[in-house]
Amino acid sequence: MSEPIVLITGASSGIGEAIARKLAVAGYFPILTARNLARLHQLQQELNKGAVLSCDITREEDVKKLIDQIIQKFGRIDILINSAGYGRFGDALDISLEDYQGMMETNFLGTVRMIHHVLPHMLENGGGRIINISSMAGLTGIPNLAGYCATKFALIGFSESLRLEYSPAIQVGVLCPGPVRTPFFGEEDPNHHFPSLIARQMLDAEDVALETLKMIQRPRIVIIPKKLKWALKLRHWFPSLFLALTKQLYSRLNIKNRKSTFQHISKS
Question: Which first-to-last residue range defines the signal peptide (predicted)?
Fold first, then answer.
């Protein structure tokens, strides 16, 4: 097969689906994986290309079986895009320990499992590219997202270490998008206070997919939208001021002690 083979986790919805659509049009061969097999087959039919394989990335045996099947059938994986993830929204003490563990299993350890099984094949074939979809929540703490932030902080640290250890053969990129439009905002904030506060920074899944396509050519650490880079510079130079402003902003939302599940990306 002449087309680059791309394995995409969390491809059944959200950012993962948008990435699959973008790469299919751009001349890549997408291998779609998630737990929702019916939705994956529907997407494959719409793309009119690619392959579908079910996988629960929280299960070691599932991940190993997935990679073995791909190598046996296609012989290689050129690019791995880890986009599966979800979050629990609520006060830190209201989130159960089981929920913290679940987020870590999917958002961080799920990615580690994928890389653990894909990386040896990439090295054997002379190289490869890995793109991990993190979040702005991996660069600064956000009220009511303590567990989610922790998983994304871990993912960025792991990705940076991986980049240092295996370059230039393995090119590792980390994409840190700001808030992405999802049904979560409507469910948790029916008065739309949150979107009204950050409307100019809100992204569509297609925005993230386009940036992912660019990152395949030059994997690196990317923050979108670019305006949010100024916020991070403020955090770096004036951390106390930044945290005070963040607390003030989120206090206006009146969201303390509200708890739910959201799929910032996709875990299905």
Answer: none
Please, which residues have CB within 8 angstroms of residue 111's CB and are 6 or more apart in sequence?
A: 9, 57, 82, 84, 132, 155, 158
Helix, strand or coil, per DSSP, at residue 193: helix
Give the model confidence (pLDDT) of 212-243 as tens digits: 999 998 888 888 877 777 777 887 888 888 78
What is the DSSP secondary structure assignment for residue 180, as one 8-state letter? B
Does pTM top 0.70 for this prediction?
A: yes
Domain ranges in the chain are 5-262
Is 148 assigned a catalytic role? yes
Question: In terms of Cα–Cα distance, which of 214, 95, 225, 77 is closest to 147?
Answer: 95
Report whether pLDDT(72) > 90. Answer: yes
Kindly indicate whether the domain formed by 5-262 is annotated with CATH number 3.40.50.1100.
no
Q: What is the DSSP letter of 4?
A: P
Q: Looking at 100, 148, 166, 250, which residue is catalytic? A: 148
pLDDT of residue 257: 43
Token pair 């299993």 is found at 105
Q: Specify the amino acid at residue 45.
A: Q
